[in-house]
Write a structure and sequence with these properties.
The structure holds two protein chains of two kinds.
Chain A: H1 2-30, H2 36-45, H3 50-68
Helix pairs in contact in A: 1-2
Chain B: H1 9-20, E1 25-28, H2 29-35, E2 45-49, H3 55-64, E3 66-69, E4 78-81, E5 87-90, H4 99-102, E6 106-111, E7 114-119, H5 121-131, H6 134-159
Parallel strand pairs in B: 2-5
Antiparallel strand pairs in B: 1-2, 3-4, 6-7
Helix pairs in contact in B: 1-3, 5-6
Classes of the chains: A mainly alpha, B alpha+beta.
């Protein structure tokens, strides 16, 4: 049972990754000079609600500031 | 009600009181960019007010126990007190038009029942290009790519 659930999760994750790759390729086809990493991260963030995106950005921004001190 | 991410209860309250009192302001800078999906990091939330002398601002700040601190020799204008530390005040936006002109280029983000005005990614990029400081130069390519990605996504959604 547990193993079946894990297999389903893995299949879902692979499916998501495949769709993401296709979407990145679509953006790059329209904007060949865009950086694939920037495009991929943007597409991933667009799956999150706006306030969650800001939350992530603030956490990382503050962590970077602490690291610099 | 629990504070929606990423604001604390007092930060959310400050924004909601400003909105309730119909103070004209918008979120700008990298926090605005990140709300729209740009993969950049920031440490604060920049707010651009149409008129800092608007008495509705001081009344809103008083209501939440915060205060406006005018600029001094080394410090820019700022907000101080309960829930205000996260927010920075922006006095001008390089390369952009007036507040009244730019508010037309805002997107709206829900904050509870209210809507927060957020400067569009396109206009944030324009301001970063115009400001052209060392730190802006690092984010310009990322903002440009994020804009390309969001525009492609929007175009496809429209076609469907």
């Amino acid at each position: 049972m547990k193993q079946r659930a894990q297999i389903t999760k893995l299949a879902k994750a692979r499916d998501w990754a495949r769709r993401l790759t296709m979407r990145v390729e679509r953006v790059l086809a329209a904007h060949p000079h865009a950086d694939p990493d920037n495009v991929r991260h943007t597409l991933i963030l667009l799956e999150q609600p706006p306030l969650e995106r800001l939350q992530r950005s603030l956490i990382r921004g503050r962590a970077t500031a602490i690291f610099r001190k | 009600m629990a504070a929606p991410l990423p604001f604390s209860e007092s930060e959310r309250r400050l924004l909601q009181v400003l909105l309730k009192r119909k103070v004209r302001f918008m979120v700008v800078g990298l926090s605005a960019a990140t709300l729209q999906g740009a993969p950049v990091v920031t440490q604060d939330v920049d707010l651009w007010f149409e008129n800092l002398g608007d008495p509705k601002i001081s009344r809103a700040l008083q209501e939440v126990g915060a205060a406006y601190v005018p600029p001094s020799n080394f410090n820019p204008p700022m907000l101080a007190g309960a829930g205000a530390e996260l927010f920075d005040i922006v006095l001008r936006m390089d390369g952009l038009g007036t507040f009244a002109g730019e508010i037309k280029n805002c997107v709206e983000i829900s904050l509870g029942r209210q809507k927060l005005k957020v400067l569009s990614l396109e206009r944030i990029l324009a301001s970063k290009i115009a400001a052209n400081r060392a730190k802006d130069k690092l984010t310009i390519p990322v903002l440009r790519d994020a804009l390309a990605a969001t525009q492609t996504v929007k175009r496809r959604a429209k076609r469907k």
